[in-house]
Amino acid sequence: MTLRPKLDDDQVMTDTTSLSQLKQAALDRARAGDWNGAADTLHTVLAQSPSDLGSLLLLGDVSHSGGNIQAASDGYRAALALAGQMPNLPATVQAGLRRAQTRLADYASDYAARLDGLIPPSERSARFNQSLDILLGRQPAYLQEPRRYYFPGLPQIQFYDTAQFDWVQDMEDRTPDIQAELRTVLAEDQASFRPYIERGAGHLGGQDHHLLDNTDWSAFYLWKDGQKIEANCARCPITTAALERVPLDFADGKCPSVLFSVLKPGAHIPPHNGMVNTRLICHLPLIVPGPAWLRVGSETHHWQEGRMVIFDDTIEHEAKNEADETRIVLLFDVWRPELSDQERREVATLLGAIDSFSES
């Protein structure tokens, strides 16, 4: 039974004497060990007086003593919800509420232990383990929450297995050559790296962001919002050629963006969600001098040079460089593999039109 107590200033007690007698009868039955009889009597009381805090606590107690944990949980939760509306409770009632909180915590712990014991942790799949953590409230269910455009029916995957993308190995094999081009740009033209979040760009939720116009997170673009930066691509011909086999999510005036993404020592990109869920974000780590990580939903990945990372940026994510030197990745976005060629064309047309309308 789920109890939903509510204070009601207009509530009329139908017969205070009979209610007192019923509560006394419930106490007598409880003292005699008749837990079910006591609970039945208390349900009668609460049907007439649903805001009787003492009866709710007693219902939790007798149900607990009778081994009916679900009924005890219902009674205790209802009592705690009601008590939140009632100031200046007597010390004895406050003690009962503390007992209710302790027992609810114990129930939750016992429940978790029983479920955890069903399958040894070493034998669980990663997704089942995650589902168990969500069920037990140990972590939230992180879902796609794009800030601009949601395409339905796509799987909720935080980090993708890079083995399912036939172009990843080629990109990883080219890491040394891409690193060499990056280092040349760094040596010749540091000024070409611009803050990733610039005033008026609308990234990451507004113009008061701590990374706004801040080179702690900066970028050297090969493509920016769908526009190829010819001069920069000419300086990085190997990198540009490597991207020809990659299914970049071209949409006029919107996608893709391809850049060397720089995160200075100690820089933290706070939790946020991306714009559209029809793409995935890829990182090819090029310079990783020490501990640096990317959290997507409930999973945290530590970058390793030359090891591709592919993730859904519409799931809440954040990143931090905890090293003493700069971290740099090649960042680019690709079509989600679940989209058909027709769907990609449709989405590209739509996103281009959205940008056109927003500028008119």
Brief descriptors of the model:
4-stranded antiparallel sheet; alpha+beta; 2 domains; Jelly Rolls; Serine Threonine Protein Phosphatase 5, Tetratricopeptide repeat; 7-stranded antiparallel sheet; 11 strands; about 350 residues
**How many E strands?**
11
Q: Can you give the mean pLDDT?
A: 90
CATH superfamily of the largest domain: B-lactam Antibiotic, Isopenicillin N Synthase, Chain
Helix content: 40-55%
Number of distinct helices: 11
Radius of gyration: 30 Å
Strand content: 15-25%
Briefly note the CATH topology name of the largest domain: Jelly Rolls
Indicate the overall shape.
elongated
Quickly give the structural class. Answer: alpha+beta
Q: Name the helix and strand elements from N-terminus to C-terminus, one letter apiece.
A: HHHHHHHHEEEHHEEEEEEEEH
Low-confidence spans: pLDDT under 50, at least 5 residues? 4-15
Q: N-to-C terminal Cα separation, in Å?
A: 58 Å
